[in-house]
């Protein structure tokens, strides 16, 4: 049985979670128990607990609960940086030499141990990733807001009027620039901002994508003489103004006047078109009806060429220098007032066409050469021409990327007058270079112009080599002893890229009996020729004779591979049946019912022929017969056979039968001959 232990201090050290605030129990205690404030990185929490008796078992009891020593742990608590120990809290600094001052100890609540959470290593990366993501989102939003809210460049609209002095019913050409693009424009006049009408509705036009516009405004009679301010405003309230003067109409007759009698449109290059506005005025009243004519068409024109106006009208003088030579030009435009007796007015127009600048034109933009390490390619030419109007001094610079100085030019500089040209040779040297492709450049230049390059490619290929090919490697002849078979041919070709000098050699055993034609010659690359073999075997006995025809390159030291054609003669000793005709035809009528035709049978072979004739007739009436149905023929021997047709018992129509002449010897290789016999009975 345990006795109540003496009170003692047990210290619990707790390491607070990062950022956590530890609060001591709020139970009131005697102020004498409060320790003096200390500034320590860790706090020790004191708890009164009875000390265990000496012995093997130790325990403590606090607030009615018993704790074993093994269950009591020390924890360190880190205070907040700004937290100071409070006098009202029950803190006690433990010291082995300082006994407790509490005669009546009051049990304190034991601080529940807060285990250190090992999340610091995880929290830092998560916070960094989150911060980066939020930073990217924030900067994107900020960039969008800055771009969306960036200040728009202030527009500076301008308004122009032509003419700026006119009368009622004249046409005012109003143009503007610097307005908002594709914006709807409104037009007003004077300080009262009176809308300018287009019929009964306010005049509105849209600007182009450039912010410009142009519109014609007829001046109505309602506009009072004097100065008027014209305003143009777009939908963003960008506004510009100009002043025009409305003239009063004098009571005098109309009188056409020119603001000047001469205009110079200056000098410019050929094909340049110049324009200049010119104002016609009416020095009288009413309206001027006018028209023009030009003595220098087509280069001098006026737009429009006629019209009617009250006060003034703007016309455009147009000078087109296209297809004109370089010199000064003078033309005249005559203005005639219709319906009046006023003298025509003449406007003198002058201009000049400058000589064209020098212009170097090359005949080739690129050149390609093909050579071998043993042979240079053929030179190529290039032509340069001065198509301009000024002389030029040209130079050519050569460069090569690899292979050294293999590129050259017959001339590297010169002088070209306008309209002249010169031709030079471009030389590429491939001898000594390795197989491959080489790049070079010819750069032509002259003062005041950009240099013009000509790309040069040199392709160095292996030396050309002839290559021999034949269409067949075997020729077979079958013949009867004593007879020559028909000739046969084969073709030789040069599939290489060099000329082929060829010749034919024959084995000794076939040279006398198989002559060839032709027996030698020259073939260009991709060329071919037929070689004919004409057998001469009449004196050769039966049997098989073969040998080779060899086609070779006749050049000394040639590496071209030769080709062979095997020739075989198979000669047999046998009879051969030959008949004089394979078709016999009879025509009979009521008066001619029997007739005969001869048939000649010959043994053209080299052995005797034992022959026979067989008749095949599909008709039940035997209308065909022969007088000689068989016999024996020596080589080159012949027999006559009379073939008789008797149509006495045949009805009108056409009938067919066959005669077959064959060898009667068993196992004969002799080919039989068939004769077709027809009779037509009418």
Write up this protein.
The protein is mainly beta. It has 6 domains: 1-117, no CATH class; 158-246, Immunoglobulin-like (Sandwich), CATH 2.60.40; 256-353, Immunoglobulin-like; 360-460, Immunoglobulin-like (Sandwich), CATH 2.60.40.10; 468-572, Sandwich (Immunoglobulin-like); 577-681, Immunoglobulin-like. The chain is 4% helix and 46% strand. The chain contains 1 helix and 51 strands. The strands form 13 sheets. Strands 6, 8, 9, 12, 14 and 15 form a 6-stranded mixed sheet that branches. A hairpin with a 4-residue loop joins strand 8 and strand 9 (194-195). The chain is elongated.
Beta-strand level of the residues, as a percent range?
over 45%
**What is the number of strand segments?**
51
User: Sheet bearing the most strands, described?
Assistant: 6 strands, mixed
The domain tally reads: 6
* Ends apart, CA distance between termini: 161 Å
Binned, the helix content reads under 10%
Which residue ranges are poorly predicted, with pLDDT under 50 across at least 5 consecutive positions?
Answer: 1-103, 105-114
Shape: elongated
Number of helices: 1
Helices and strands: which structural class? Answer: mainly beta
Write down the Rg. 63 Å
Q: What is the mean predicted local confidence, pLDDT?
A: 84
């Amino acid at each position: 049985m345990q006795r109540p232990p003496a009170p003692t201090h047990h210290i619990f050290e707790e390491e607070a979670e990062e950022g956590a605030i530890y609060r001591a129990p709020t139970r009131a205690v005697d102020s004498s128990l409060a320790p003096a404030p200390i500034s320590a990185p860790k706090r020790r929490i004191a708890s009164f607990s009875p000390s265990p008796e000496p012995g093997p078992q130790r325990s403590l009891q606090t607030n009615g609960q018993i704790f074993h020593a093994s269950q009591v742990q020390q924890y360190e608590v880190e205070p907040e940086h700004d937290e100071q120990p409070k006098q009202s809290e029950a803190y006690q600094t433990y010291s082995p030499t300082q006994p407790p001052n509490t005669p009546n100890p009051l049990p304190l609540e034991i601080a529940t141990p807060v285990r250190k959470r090992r999340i610091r290593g995880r929290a830092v990366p998560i916070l960094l990733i989150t911060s980066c993501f939020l930073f990217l989102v924030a900067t994107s939003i900020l960039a969008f807001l800055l771009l969306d809210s960036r200040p728009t460049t202030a527009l500076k609209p301008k308004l122009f009027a032509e003419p700026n002095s006119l009368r009622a019913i004249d046409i005012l050409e109003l143009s503007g620039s610097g307005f908002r693009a594709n914006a709807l424009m409104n037009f007003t006049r004077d300080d009262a901002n009176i809308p300018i009408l287009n019929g009964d509705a306010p005049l509105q036009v849209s600007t182009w994508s450039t912010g410009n516009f142009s519109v014609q405004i007829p001046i109505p009679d309602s506009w009072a003489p004097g100065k008027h301010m014209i305003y143009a405003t777009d939908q963003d309230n960008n506004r510009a103004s100009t002043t025009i003067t409305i003239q009063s109409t004098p009571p005098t007759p109309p009188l056409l006047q020119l603001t000047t009698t001469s205009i110079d449109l200056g000098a410019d290059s050929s094909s340049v078109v110049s324009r200049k506005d010119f104002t016609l005025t009416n020095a009288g009243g009413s309206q001027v009806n006018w028209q023009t004519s030009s003595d220098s068409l087509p280069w001098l024109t006026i737009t429009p060429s006629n019209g009617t106006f009250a006060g003034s009208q703007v016309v455009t003088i147009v000078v087109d220098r296209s297809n004109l030579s370089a010199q000064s030009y003078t033309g005249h435009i005559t203005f005639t007032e219709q319906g009046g007796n006023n003298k025509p007015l003449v406007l003198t127009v002058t201009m000049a066409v400058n000589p064209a600048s020098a212009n170097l034109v090359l005949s080739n933009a690129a050149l390609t050469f093909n050579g071998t390490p043993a042979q240079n390619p053929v030179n190529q030419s290039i032509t340069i021409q001065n198509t301009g109007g000024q002389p030029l001094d040209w130079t050519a610079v050569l460069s090569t990327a690899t292979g050294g100085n293999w590129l050259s030019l017959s001339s590297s500089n010169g002088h070209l007058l306008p309209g002249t040209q010169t031709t030079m040779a471009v030389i590429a040297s491939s001898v000594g270079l390795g197989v491959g492709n080489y790049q070079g450049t010819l750069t032509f230049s002259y003062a005041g112009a950009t240099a013009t390059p000509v790309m040069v490619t040199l392709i160095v290929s292996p030396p050309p080599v002839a290559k021999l090919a034949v269409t067949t490697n075997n020729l077979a002849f079958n013949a009867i002893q004593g007879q020559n078979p028909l000739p046969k041919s084969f073709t030789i070709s040069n599939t290489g890229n060099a000329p082929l000098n060829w010749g034919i050699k024959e084995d000794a055993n076939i040279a006398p009996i198989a002559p060839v034609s032709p027996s030698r010659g020259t073939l260009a690359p991709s060329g071919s020729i037929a070689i004919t073999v004409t057998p001469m075997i009449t004196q050769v006995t039966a049997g098989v004779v073969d040998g080779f025809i060899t086609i070779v390159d006749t050049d000394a030291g040639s590496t071209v591979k030769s080709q062979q054609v095997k020739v075989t003669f198979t000669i047999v000793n046998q009879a051969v049946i030959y008949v004089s005709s394979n078709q016999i035809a009879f025509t009979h009528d009521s008066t001619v019912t029997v007739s005969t035709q001869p048939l000649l049978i010959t043994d053209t072979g080299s052995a005797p022929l034992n022959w026979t004739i067989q008749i095949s007739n599909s008709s039940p009436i035997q209308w065909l017969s022969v007088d000689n149905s068989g016999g024996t023929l020596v080589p080159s021997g012949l027999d006559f056979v009379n073939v008789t047709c008797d149509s006495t018992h045949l009805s009108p129509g056409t009938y067919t039968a066959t005669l077959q002449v064959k060898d009667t010897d068993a196992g004969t290789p002799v080919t039989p001959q068939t004769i077709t016999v027809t009779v037509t009975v009418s």
